[in-house]
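SAMPLE LOG
Freezer: B-3
Tube label: C17
Construct: single chain, 442 aa
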Amino acid sequence: MISLGRLRVAHRAQQVLFWRLIEKGLSSEGAAVQVGASAPVGSRWFREAGGMPPSHYSKSAPPLSGRYLTFPEREEIALCRAQGLGVCAIARIIGRSASTISRELRRNAATRSGGFAYRATTAQWHANRAARRPKTTKLAQNPALLQYVEDRLSGNVTGAGGEIAPGPDVVWTKRRSVRRQHRRWATAWSPEQIARRLPLDYPEDYTMRISHEAIYQALFIQGRGALRRELVACLRSGRALHVPRARRKGKGRPFVSEEIMISERPAEVADRAVPGHWEGDLILGLKSSAIGTLVERKTRFTLLLHLPPMSGHGNSIRQKNGPALAGHGAEAVRNAIAKSIVDLPEHLRKSLTWDQGAEMAQHEKLKFDTGMDVYFCDPQSPWQRGSNENTNGLLRQYFQKGTNLSTHSEKELQAIAYTLNSRPRKTLGWKTPAEALEKVLK
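STRUCTURE (predicted):
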């Protein structure tokens, strides 16, 4: 039998322990060293698996059955064979039947030298290869399902009228995306959104079903190739591997009075039973650029505020104590909020919750213009605007950190908002924010 390639260094026990250590938070290099492999080998294991422990190495996987030979037993067979012992003698020593030893010597022998020499590592490699159960993935079997998944991962961003907003021109570099660079604009539904939406779009067709975990495996794991590798760039995180993500907390400015703190907000806002309560924040970019975001708490409907730089921005000489020319000063933010929300029915503009940023210094004028009560979160407490923080994370799919956000026109912002409001949400029973808002309006 012709050899199929280089032997693997580790056996099953090492791989199992490696993924146990990864689950405890160790790096791939550190976990590999602890199980007796080299750091580059650990990096390769982690990369080939897409950062996801294989199912047969996970905690839920059953232990290897005792009916199979183990690696220590194969080492004992190799030692006995080197001493010239026969099949029956080897079987008596390791406590196995003679037929088991005979099949082992015949099936898992090393053939590269032209003979049937027996080596424990080679035999273990042959046994691991034979134990695989290759299975065609559901996406590879169902072209319609594959097309559905690809369209919702990488479809074009369009406005309400169907016009395409292409976004920045980004070339796939076969590497995970990094911060402070543009990302390609796409529909970018998450795998869970795609999986949960299928029963709503195809209630009678049970062939159009797939789990979100299967989609992740098709993207991340090498060799399960139904989905193109470059589609990982359409994921919200942009990562090509499952890795931990650190989050940084923002800092607020305590410039508001106690009367308008979030603790004084009515109880009806917290339970999301009544529509019309909004959360807001700014997404910041390079060159003092920013985009404002407004999210309705009950429906998760999103509005984006266009905040272009004002005339004179970037000049070395500016008026003392004049307005903020970057476009997201207190006056500019107040005008943008009033322009976006004043056309809504009165019952949909009851309150607005913001962090303690200086851009809301004119909150009293905003209340007079729109009739909305304004409340402020506690310092360093972004979770008090959870809906808005989550939405800002979704929007970073299109507006990457470290990019100039002032290059996007108001029409492009409306297209992004329309795309986001057309994506199903788990918290809405997999309905879209646009559908939820339409129900409220009716």
